[in-house]
Amino acid sequence: MTDTHQRELNPGVNIPLVGFGTYLIPDDETASAVENALAAGYRHVDTAEVYENERGVGEGLRRGMQQAGLDRGDVFVTTKLWPLAGERPKTSEETLRSLDESLDRLGLEQVDLYLIHATFGREQRLEQWQGLVEAYKSGKTRAIGVSNFNAAHIDELAEAGLPVPHANQIELHPWSQKPDLVAYLSQKDITPIAYSSLAPLSTWRTAPGHASGKTQEMRAEGEQSDSPFKRLAAKYGVTEAQLLLRWGVQSGYPVLPKSTNPVRMRENLDLFSFRIDDADMDAIRGLDRGAGLAWGEVDPTTHD
Fold first, then answer.
1. Residue 51 catalytic?
2. From its phi and psi, is residue 301 left (phi > 0), alpha (psi between -120 and 50) or beta?
3. Hey, what's the torsion of the CAs at 72, 75, 81, 86, to 10 degrees?
């Protein structure tokens, strides 16, 4: 697992361990970013309905695949259902319609992975998951999953007689390792996909208007010259971002770094030329702080 470039999802679908994340990239900039990512070597692109950049992702895929001589099967594409239509939950039929609309914006007949983006209510989760199961059966997606679900949410699906997800995309990094949830997912053969892998960096998500649970003290800690991630990055001769991302893939998690800087794109993809030794992996395990940062004061896994 630690030195392969991909991981097998439950249905025999391979997901590359390093994907290109597109959160916070405006739609009119996304096509160039995705094109550059494919040129740099990425073969996994992650987007979502709520990101409002699926059209740009689709254009970038077309341009980038043509430039790199790639076929559709060479690139793994994930998108996500936003569970609400306005302020009310989407029905199963609206879930299927949302996927059709995402496919139209992406210019694709099929995505590789379709996820429910967040949790809001039990009946809503069951109905929307039924929609995803139908989408999987119809061949519009090669795998289905969830995002920000906890063990109880997934148990609900099984108790309702529905298949369990193939993947759960959750916030995972050394400050939020979720060992109990990860163990549960492993037991159920559900692949954890990591987002916000770079949250411990002092510069993480500083764009105005994008809330996070990160305090000024946490940012200041990341700037200290003797921070554990700076020390480990120096030890291995890599960037802090590479160190954090390598922790993810070495743990077996697909990661989704986002950058529009071509140099950083290539750095974030270069995670297989070094390995964190066992002693340092053990030390990182001791840095876990429990709760995540990505949703600000809101934990998306706590809704009833």
1. yes
2. alpha
3. -80
Least Cα distance to 198 among 238, 243, 236, 234 occurs for: 243
- Looking at the structure, give the CATH architecture of the domain made up of residues 6-285: Alpha-Beta Barrel (3.20)
Which one is catalytic: 42, 51, 114, 195?
A: 51
| Tokens read off for 203 | 């510069």
Write the burial class of residue 3 (CB in 10 Å: 0-12 exposed, 13-18 middle, 19+ buried): exposed
Q: What percent of the chain has pLDDT over 70?
A: 89
**Cα distance between residue 8 and residue 13, in whole Å:** 6
Place of tokens 């390598």: 246
Cβ atoms of 260 and 29 within 8 Å: the answer is yes
- Find the helix packing angle between 278-285 and 240-250, rounded to 10°: 90
> Measured in Å, how far apart are the chain's first and last C-alpha atoms?
35
Alpha-carbon span 10 to 215, nearest angstrom: 38
pLDDT in tens, 123-154: 999 999 999 999 999 999 999 999 999 999 99
- Nearest CA to 148 out of 184, 194, 111 is that of 194
Residue (of 179, 173, 176, 183) closest to 250 by Cα position? 173
